[in-house]
Amino acid sequence: MRKLPLSLPVIISDVDEYAPTFTSAMFSVQVPENTTVGSKLFTFAIDGPATDKDRISQLTQYVLISDANGRFAINDQYQGIVELKQPLDYESGNTEFRLNVTVQEVNNVSMADFTTLVIKVTDVDDLNPVFNQQAYTLQLQEGTFTGLESFSPSPAITAYDGDRAINQTIVFALDTSTKALYGNLFDVARNGSLRVNGALKPGQYNINVKAYQIDNPTFRYAVAILVLNVSDVNNNKPVMNSAQYSASVSELAAIGTTILTIAASDLDEEKS
Q1: C-alpha angle 161-164-170 in degrees, rounded to nearest 5
Q2: Quick check: is 86 in a domain?
Q3: Is 249 inside any structural domain?
Q4: ω before 129 within 30° of 0 (cis)?
Q5: For 17-34, what is the mean pLDDT?
Q6: pLDDT value for 195
Q7: Could you tell me if 90 and 124 are in contact, meaning their C-beta atoms sit under 8 angstroms apart?
Q8: Are 155 and 204 part of one and the same domain?
């Protein structure tokens, strides 16, 4: 009997033996703090897709294991789209969130892999400068000043950028409300010191000082008050109320009787 070779096709079917695998154990994305709620922050299917060694890949889904107390969510489990659900605020101190994410086969969730998505919140210029205190006090004596000398309260006037990561340079100026009230009598230097251009009389002067960002003076500024107390100087002689006094007295007047009252005044208000 003659034997003939026989070829038989062998079809090897794929078995689901490999779990989907992330390409990295960690992904990261930077998100500005003023990002609108509902914005898409990261899409795993595009930015960090999982791979499956099985020739016939199974349908996979992405699941958020930790969501930072509901601040983030995956709104499309098959694409793995991470969405912002609550507002961000860099100044609150929450500048980084770590989200644990798993990718798993829809029909066999035990076939899974895990990764971490790090969301880094970046600061934006959305806050005004902040004074180290809202009111300052300065004491001067009355007199005439030429504007060449600078005066600073204690503690000195200082301010910082409310956006701590940006930390833009802050400079000072006289607020327009004070200029409208006192004209050119006062000026504030860029370092916050006060200059006086003219005569100061005893009393209290309320001076509004403006702190502003050097790169955005129109929209990023704050105002504090400098209370200037001007004291009187004893530089005037007493003045008699009359240049001449006269009086008459009866010879029968008793001892101790008031004959005449002489009065004088002092133009120095505090030291009269």
Answers
A1: 20
A2: yes
A3: no
A4: no
A5: 91
A6: 96
A7: yes
A8: yes
pLDDT(12) > 90: no
User: Of the residues 76, 95, 122, which one is the last residue of a structural domain?
Assistant: 122
Q: 246: part of which helix (H) or strand (E)?
A: none
- List the Cα angle 27/28/33 in 5-degree steps: 155
Give the model confidence (pLDDT) of 70-112 as tens digits. 999 999 999 999 999 999 999 999 999 999 999 998 888 888 9
Of 105, 122, 139, the residue at which a domain comes to its end is 122
Please check whether residues 136 and 116 belong to one and the same domain: no
What is residue 246's predicted lDDT score, i.e. its pLDDT? 74
Q: Is 62 helix (H, G, I), strand (E, B) or coil?
A: strand
Strands of the chain, DSSP E: 21-22, 26-32, 40-43, 50-51, 60-64, 72-76, 81-84, 96-105, 108-122, 129-131, 135-141, 143-151, 159-161, 170-174, 186-188, 194-200, 203-213, 221-231, 239-240, 264-265
User: For the segment 180-206, what is each residue's pLDDT rounded down to a tens digit?
Assistant: 999 999 999 999 999 999 999 999 999
Domain that holds residue 101: 21-122
pLDDT of residue 11: 64
The CATH number linked to 25 is 2.60.40.60
Does some domain include residue 62?
yes
In whole angstroms, what is the distance from residue 272 CA to residue 266 CA? 5
Number of domains in the chain: 2
The three-point CA angle 212-214-218 to 5° equals 55
pLDDT tens per residue, range 137-153: 999 999 999 988 999 99
25 shares its domain with 112: yes
Q: Residue 129 is encoded by which pair of tokens?
A: 């400068």
At 147, the amino acid letter reads G
In-domain check, residue 171: yes
